[in-house]
Amino acid sequence: MKMALLRPLKIDSPGKIGLFCSSKGIAIMKKLLLLLSLVFILTGCFEPERNCTDFKTGTFEYKTYLNGELATSTFIRNDSIEIDKFQGKSDTSSVRWINDCEYILKNLNPKSMAEEKPIHMKILTTNKDGYTFEYGIVGQDKKQRGSVNRVK
């Protein structure tokens, strides 16, 4: 096995790298460092709006596509109960808040094994009209996202 030999860097003109060693070059590098630091601070500190407590209670609409058609579900939530109305049917779930932005939904009248599994809901961002959330069955890694609008 041959090993590559390192050759010393040949500098034809010392002035080519002198820019970064001069006081002018150092001033440019300081400005560049300051600019990069400022960009990092401004983008690193950005947090999306998250006023989750504004959405603990109320009437909301969730729209999704089912079999290629837009379907709308309306639900009413108070601090401990959520009533979902979809395609003329109502379903009631208990709500257990983990923190201001996360809660567990558990169907009170499950009709199948799938409906018995609790769902973990997490509000990701909020705005004046509604919120974006992530949800999944408790204990499973698969998550989905959706958006909700406040009706009342």
How would you describe this protein?
This is DNA topoisomerase IV. It comes from Salegentibacter agarivorans. This protein is elongated. A hairpin with a 3-residue loop joins β6 and β7 (about 130-135). The chain has about 150 residues and is α+β, with helices and mostly antiparallel strands. It has 2 domains: about 15-45; about 50-150, Uncharacterised protein PF14869 family, DUF4488 (Lipocalin), CATH 2.40.128. Helices cover about 20% and strands about 40% of the residues. It is built from 3 helices and 8 strands, in the order ααβββββαβββ. An 8-stranded antiparallel β-barrel has the order 1-2-3-4-5-6-7-8. It has helices spanning about 15-20, 25-45, 115; strands at about 60-65, 70-75, 80-85, 90-100, 100-105, 120-125, 130-135, 145-150. The mean pLDDT is about 85. The protein starts with 14 loop residues before the first helix and ends with a strand.
